[in-house]
Design a protein that fits this description.
Layout lengths: L2 E5 L4 H12 L3 E6 L2 H9 L7 E5 L5 H14 L5 E4 L17 H21 L6 E5 L22 H22 L6 E6 L3 E2 L8 H10 L4 E2 H4 L1 H8 L2 H4 L4 E3 L2 E3 L8 H19 L6
Parallel strand pairs: 1-2, 1-4, 2-3, 4-5, 5-6, 6-9, 7-8
Antiparallel strand pairs: 9-10
Helix pairs in contact: 1-8, 3-4, 4-5, 4-10, 5-10
The structure holds NADP nicotinamide-adenine-dinucleotide phosphate (NAP).
């Protein structure tokens, strides 16, 4: 049985993924920002004795570090890291760390989490890192000189950019961790009826509500995550983008080694500035 760490299990795809993997007998470490919701989720898990909760707010790098320190104290190894939590932010928000929220919660905090979990993953069995990207990456306009959106904020572009950065991150990890035997892939879950987009108000909010009944449900949306976590495919393949449980071709923007390196440097710079150390040891 495997040990699985997953972010964002309080709703949607993360909840269904955690539930299915727990039902299959795996131990689930849930990293969520909301303790009350997490307790409710724990009570809904098929095997609650094999679920652990750590409070982790992805909008706060110190909170991520605290959670990872607690995990490192308790666990000796980790088999699967699922960078699942994320979403779109209707209005520009700066986090307490001083970074744009969409970028921080979808990419920067998962970068810190991933590097902090590497010592455990290196001791895991067929270890793998799975990151939830999105087809939205096709609309990205990456700008490494303006990651904090000082030149203007458009919520969908910020989200598309973050999801493209997820692809750079998975690709960079796959190369860097090849010799350690850790696989890293990214995926698009489908267009799924979850809490995604619920924070929009006005016309956009109403349109999202109207569309939701036509989308696939979260159980279906969790299938590619579950496939990569629970089958050989998630370990044998690395550096790929999956859709419908199969490797898919991302937009040509996703093939850019210079941008992979710029993203890595940008994440390290921000973590060093906030936490005072470089997590890439
Ligand atoms: N739904 C889709 O159609 C779709 C399509 C492509 C990709 N995706 C990706 O799939 C992933 C899961 O999204 P979903 O659709 O399942 O959305 P969701 O139902 O809104 O779930 C998002 C999860 O992320 C958590 N989260 C949000 N901000 C957080 C923070 N600051 N710190 C810690 N946790 C935080 C939420 O926790 P709270 O309950 O505390 O808010 C929730 O557990 C995301 O990465 C999303 O970008 C979704």
């Amino acid at each position: 049985m495997k040990t699985v760490l997953i972010t964002g299990t309080t709703s949607g795809i993360g909840f269904e993924t955690a539930k299915a993997l727990n039902k299959a007998g795996h131990t689930i470490l849930m990293l969520n920002r909301n303790a009350e919701k997490s307790e409710k989720v724990m009570s809904q898990m098929p095997q609650p004795a094999h679920v652990d909760f750590y409070r982790c707010d992805l909008a706060d790098l110190r909170s991520v570090k605290k959670a990872t320190d607690e995990v490192l104290k308790k666990y000796e190894s980790l088999d699967i890291l699922l960078n699942n939590a994320g979403g779109i932010v209707p209005e520009k928000v700066m986090t307490k760390d001083g970074y744009e929220l969409t970028f921080q919660m979808n990419q920067l905090s998962h970068f810190l989490l991933t590097y902090e979990m590497l010592p455990l993953l290196k001791k895991g069995k067929e270890p793998r890192i799975i990151t939830l990207s999105s087809e939205a990456h096709r609309a990205a306009k990456p700008d490494f000189d303006d990651l904090e959106c000082e030149n203007g904020y458009a919520s969908f572009t910020a989200y598309a950019n973050a999801k493209l950065y997820n692809l750079y991150f998975a690709k960079q990890l796959s190369k860097e961790l090849k010799s350690s035997g850790i696989a890293a892939n990214a995926l698009h879950p489908g267009v799924v009826n979850t809490g995604f987009g619920d924070k929009y108000k006005g016309i956009i909010g109403s349109l999202i509500k109207l569309l939701k009944p036509f989308l696939i449900n979260a159980q279906k949306g969790a299938q590619t995550s579950i496939h990569l976590a629970a089958t050989e495919a998630g370990y044998e393949k690395s550096g790929l983008y999956f859709k419908n449980k199969k490797p898919a071709k991302p937009h040509k923007l996703a093939f850019n080694e210079e941008f992979e390196n710029r993203l890595k440097a940008a994440c390290i710079e921000r973590i060093e500035k906030t936490l005072g150390y470089n997590p890439v040891k």
